[in-house]
Amino acid sequence: METNVIEQVFGKDVFNDDVMQAKLPKDVYKSWKKTLESGADLDLDIANVVAHAMKEWALEHGATHYTHWFQPLTGVTAEKHDSFLSPASNSKPVLEFSGKELIKGEPDASSFPSGGLRATFEARGYTAWDCTSPAFLQEDAAGVTLCIPTAFCSYTGEALDKKTPLLRSMEAISKQAVRIMKLFGYDDVKKVACSVGPEQEYFLVDRDKYLQRKDLIFSGRTLFGAPAPKGQELDDHYFGAIKERVASFMKDLNEELWKLGILSKTQHNEVAPAQHEMAPIFTTANISTDHNQLVMEIMKKVAKRHNLECLLHEKPFAGVNGSGKHNNWSIVTDTGINLLDPGKNPHTNTKFLLFLAAVIKAVDENAELLRLSASNPGNDHRLGANEAPPAIISIFLGEQLEDIIEQIVKGDVSSSIQGSKLDTGVHVLPVLKKDATDRNRTSPFAFTGNKFEFRMLGSSMSIAGANFTLNSIVADVLQDFADELEAADNFDTAVKELIKKTVTEHQKVIFNGDGYSDEWIAEAEKRGLPNVKSMVEAVPYLTKEKTVKLFERQNVLTKAELESRAEINYETYSKTINIEAKTMIDMAGKQYIPAVIEYVTSLADSINSVTAACAAADVSVQTELLTKCSSLLAAAQKALLHLEDVTEEAATKEEGQEQATFFKDVVFAAMNELRAPIDELEMIVDQDFWPVPTYGDLLFEV
């Protein structure tokens, strides 16, 4: 029987557990597994054997180099390649790879964002092997490279990456959740892992057209562009038949992902034209984070093979839906118990209700941090724009759990709303089992059966920030719960009282209605829920005393590390808007305005020619077009000069909050002023004169 393509390729480029078991001596493999399970430091002798086996496996697959693959605070991955060559012999190559080289690398720490943690002259930094995430091979024009997932820290020990806080937060939530489980009598539970499945949205456009748009090249989004005659209003793209060219891309993408052991499961067209989605099966948070970074990199790489360009920006096109990344999060014991699974009768499932109460409290008390964890300059275009969740953090629990919460608050818990049968009215169709709860796409944080779906993340973002934030805030609440319950005289009574007290105090964050409605904005304000409307407004919450206390208590981030991240966030925002503004200045001055001048000149020539040939001819149409275009051209030139001025002024502002705020309030407004007349001109000027592909060209010609 022929082997299925998934079985043929799945995990073939991963130094996974099966490969290790086959390549390592039995005693070494056992020691390795024990180290992994206990979280102890890896013995150098064991590391040397693992490194040798890893090198031999990589060489068998054609590798010539290895790299410590890490995730600095740029939001993308980084790597420095070294060959396996050793200086041991001058006459022939000797290929070596030691345990020391496996465990530690040394990239330049001063050239990555550090938010003041490292001075320019302080260059030393370290990468440390994350042995919980398997090594893998990547093949490209440079050949085959062995990639070793690592954490990245400074010479003085501060985290300079996105992985280190995530790993720390995973330890924090595991420690506190295990304490709770022991109180419920689960002494066999030694570890609790957070499980994550991130859905990835993206756009595909023709690469030749992409290369004609400086705004897409430099900023990832169209900074100019009038709406196409058709958008998404017919809802015909969503889940529609996948075009051949896109299907071919998806086929290649799946095979590349499967080779790396990435559980690519679902693919479909999304709401906007040219927009698509890929969703994986759940895995542990750090591996899921590594995998999602690879997904984004490989999407871009595979797209180019098909003469396509993959756009991961949150809002590549105005007027149609942007792209997000739904972060599905749950917590599971090493014995296989999903702590967010309500079971058939959640009203009697005290363990579930306690963990649910912990999440509700954590989200209510730390809404601003969750908002920040989903913030980048691109996502500001989506949140609260009736295409993504509102910027107000609330929790959707659904009819069944909301009913139970109301019963708990009233003090009389007696039942759970059960699912029913759904009769379609067609005899040849089966009667379907109907869930006890509907779903809510307008909720930023929705319970979806046995997990929470954090729906606010932007499509280009690393999922590490959202998950280390979730892990940390829930761990902090669980620590308080464990302290209180461990000291209780009667656990059963104490746990019920704790659940009731918690949900009563924090039920204001629960909302099952339409998050897009104006009524909800007013209601949320009455409830005292924060409405943080932009990334710049969210950043200050990172260094509040309450935040510092929480992250230091959970050993996830220090005050210095939090301050550095605040500085980097401000810098990222300012630099992003600055690049966009300069790109607009370049495009308007060198492309749009010259094209419109050429068009109005042709109009003027046309009027003169017609009038010269026949003085009585009606040239009112040409005259009206000439007048309107000339007026809009003047408005564009005035707006261009203003944008140049305010962009120069922004450079004089103090770096940090002041400069970022100026970019948000002044420069961004000036960008919109320049866009308006040029977009209007696009609807008037002859297509032969227009210098770049339009929305219609980009969105509908793949």
TrEMBL record:
* Annotated ranges, domain GS beta-grasp: 64-157
Concerning InterPro entries, the annotation shows:
Gln-synt_C (IPR040577), Gln_synt_N (IPR008147), Gln_synth/guanido_kin_cat_dom (IPR014746), Gln_synth_cat_dom (IPR008146), Gln_synth_gly_rich_site (IPR027303), GS_Type-3 (IPR052725), GSIII_N (IPR022147)
Superkingdom of this protein's organism:
Bacteria
Which protein family is named in the record?
Answer: Belongs to the glutamine synthetase family.
Q: Which residues form the GS catalytic domain?
A: 162-592
Q: Which Gene3D superfamilies match?
A: 1.20.120.1560, Glutamine synthetase/guanido kinase, catalytic domain
* Provenance organism: Jutongia hominis
- Pfam families under this entry? Gln-synt_C (PF00120), Gln-synt_C-ter (PF18318), GSIII_N (PF12437)
Q: Any signal peptide, and if so, which residues?
A: none
Q: Which residues form a coiled coil?
A: none
Cited SMART domains = Gln-synt_C
Q: Which SUPFAM superfamilies match?
A: Glutamine synthetase/guanido kinase
User: Mind telling me what this protein is named?
Assistant: Glutamine synthetase III
